[in-house]
Each structure stands twice: as C-alpha cells, then as structure tokens.
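G.,

No rush on this.
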Amino acid sequence: MSKTELREIIGARVVRAHSSLSKFAIELEDDRGVVLTASEGSKIAAEIVEASAVPSLSEAVCSVDWSWINGSVFEDVQLSATAVRFKLNPAGPLTISSGAWQGSPFLSFMPYKPAPKQA
C-alpha cells in the first residue's frame, strides 16, 4: 500500500484495536479497518479492508489493551518500509515498527499504553 492510499483513513474514528506478535488490526467507525503485518526483512505491510475482514487478534504472551485509542480520530499517517506512525486525537502519536527476532518478523509499538496524565 502506498502512503497516499493509507492517508485515506485520515478523519476516521477508531472503534477498537487488536494485536498479536505480527499483526495489528484497527476497526474504524466507517465500516473499514486497517491491518498492519510484519513481514520478512523487517518490512511492514499496511492494508485497508472492509470491517468484516478485520481479524480478531490476541496473543497470550504479549497481550496489549488498546482501549486507550478507542474513539480517537486519525489526524495524520506516515508510512515507511519498516514503520507506520499515526497521529491520533486525543490519544497522541502511535508508532508501529517491524523487526525480526530469531528469523521471525514481529511488530513493536511505541507507546503500547497511554501516557501518564499530567497534573
């Protein structure tokens, strides 16, 4: 997917997100979804799909609670060969990167939980 195509989600609202070791799936309010997949060579593939095609993902070893991005709106999207950076309002920036460990591709997330509230 090109940067231009992924930018089609700007303005869309997150309903919920799920992740596993090698995939990140976001369901959007407009009956679409985004699926990011880690692949060989530390590459990351991005795909916009119909909501019915969004996989329900979970990982017993590294489960992440993504509820903190629910309701956020995509304000910007940046895509490179190895990472995707979302600017979400009000959740803030979220960077998903692809890497490899012992020959297997995986995704990493920064942040993986909401930032502490400022006093």
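When you get to it, here's the other one too:
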Amino acid sequence: MKKTLLTIIIITILFSFSPAQLKGDSWKFFANFGIMTDDSFTFTDYLWYFGANIDFKFNELIMLSPEINAITNKFNFEAFFLEPAVLLNIKLGTFFAGGGLTKLLLIAGDYQGSSDFALKLNAGFRSSHLRFRVFLITPFNDLLKDNLVGVQLGIGF
C-alpha cells in the first residue's frame, strides 16, 4: 500500500504542471548514473545506480527535482532497489543545493536495513547538458548517522 501511495504522489507531482509552466527552458530532463557507499568511505560495500530526474525551474532561485533511481550492489543484482525522491533546490547561478524526501523500495533480493522515508540532501553543478552532484541520504529516526553518501553525473536532454 505504501509503495502504491508513494508512486501516486510522485506521478501527481510530475503531471501537476500545466503546459504553460513547462515551456521554454523551465524544465530539463537528465539521465543519471553514479555510485553510493556508507559514510565510512571504505567502498567495501558500494552501490551503483542509474536513473532519471527532471529539474523544474519555478524562477531563477527555486528548482523542484523529482527523480527515480534503480540501485544494485556491485552489479551482481542480488539486491535491487528503486529509489524515488523529490528534492527542492535553491539555485545560485549554475550551482544548487537543497533537500527532500526519499525512500528505498526493495524490488528483488534480501535487505536488512530500514526502508522508511529518509532525508536526502544534495549540492552540485548544473549546466544545460551536464549535472554533477554529491548527496547524503540519512534516516529521519537517526539523523546524520548510518548515512549513504554518493556522487552522480547526469547527461541533459
């Protein structure tokens, strides 16, 4: 039920913008790939991921960025996750920073960690054809402990 409700919320956000709001350069689609690890930075356990996001610019300062990512452990596909997220970012020229909600949804395999909603913080650089960012995913019940950190590169279309 929770997965269905979250999917409905994300789809509603994506389709709630009128065509007048989405004309010109007010939105940009990015195909992303990256790597994540825990906050120890040992990279003994790391996760590869790929996905997509759309950056909706409301004005020159505020940008809403819904995204969906598929995540796997070292490309062995023993565990496969889907990570939807919605982030509100503040833009300062080509740089941005912000945060929002995310949730790890186990699609296949075994996982012993929490799949509750989490806080996702990010900062990065965005041009018309390239998006680079670093991010932190931290659980709400234990803020800034047991974090996932990652880096992402996106190609804009």
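The first strand starts at residue 27 and ends at 38. The chain has one helix and nine strands.

Enjoy the weekend,
O.
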